[in-house]
């Protein structure tokens, strides 16, 4: 069987397994509500809000993804501020409340981190949670990544694939000195900026300033200013008919992604990765990156000059480079090894073999070798999925709504609105990017959106007032 076709089939099979289902969404919403209940029991946090961020808000989480939670302290209408010592004290109060609540286990207090956090796992679904105080910049970064997917839906698919690949190679864990998921997402952004033709622009063309520094003053005003700027620029980028469209398949983009960073350990000695400018930059000539104190520099495009890969040491940088090199060699070699041996963990392969949607992926590929650690399961022909369930908010409660013709690709318009209501999409041209996967899905999105609009009118509620619930779980007054 053609190796390229084998990779195409395999990537789609992996996406069907790692994509979160409606139940995965519902469990996380319940965990957020449980944490809200916990915070309400802490006297000093009366009036605080519990707000998710990270991959859950950016819609870049897998079915095993964790939850990042920010407890935003009340500060009138202004952006809240608090010193590190005060945050540490508040997190200790939350720790005591969590132990008394009974719905969480594995509670750990990490005080020495750059941002103090409280870690715990929920009893429901065993969801890992990282709780911090006043992480508004983290929330805005999550929104921006969510909006980037509106330019090209292949971004989300690549993130999910790369996350699983990185876990399979042991390079997606900042606690052990490798890459965190945010850094991986930025590597994909950078790859999409530097491929030919480019899929994404330099992020300075979406938001030219330092977003984290601009989150001051009245919170609603600061957030709206950022959203307005991003909305206008994303609309301009999507409607630019002079742009050359990159029609590479997901398989081609993944192979070129591996090839691009095969020499990352060598190149990182003199250059850093700047998604803000969309290019490699010499560290010696970039004054804000001086002095060079890190093995790898991936600049946070929304909080320059913060290095998102600061946990990576020299030894682990070589491990990361080796993962890129070996994976690229195996997936492009004539001595064909099945892609699953390179792309997934053994436990994920086990899930894939039992999946009613994926079935077996190696039927007709008996000549391809499987890595000994993942066994020799016989795989079948890929079947079209029935489609996951989505939770829709109708103004009073969440309801299930079946997803049709979407497979494992980008979420429908309705699911995107569910993911994050306060998106600049209402100010962005909804015309799908020509040549992208979203183009063939626009009619489904329109139908789903119209269904919601009709249901709203039947309930006597205007569509403008009935926005999907914002990802800010507010405490009851």
TrEMBL record:
CDD domains given for it? NT_PAP_TUTase
**Poly(A) RNA polymerase mitochondrial-like central palm domain mapped to chain residues:** 11-145
What broad taxonomic lineage does this protein's source fall under?
Answer: Eukaryota, Viridiplantae, Streptophyta, Embryophyta, Tracheophyta
Region (Disordered) residue ranges read: 418-477
The organism encoding this protein is: Mikania micrantha (bitter vine)
Could you tell me where the Low complexity compositional bias lies? 434-443
Q: Which domain of life is it from?
A: Eukaryota
Q: Which GO terms describe its molecular function?
A: RNA uridylyltransferase activity
> What Gene3D superfamilies does this protein's entry cite?
1.10.1410.10, Beta Polymerase, domain 2
**Per its record, how is this protein called by name?**
Poly(A) RNA polymerase mitochondrial-like central palm domain-containing protein
Enumerate composition-biased segments (Polar residues).
418-433, 458-468
Q: Which GO terms describe its biological process?
A: RNA 3'-end processing
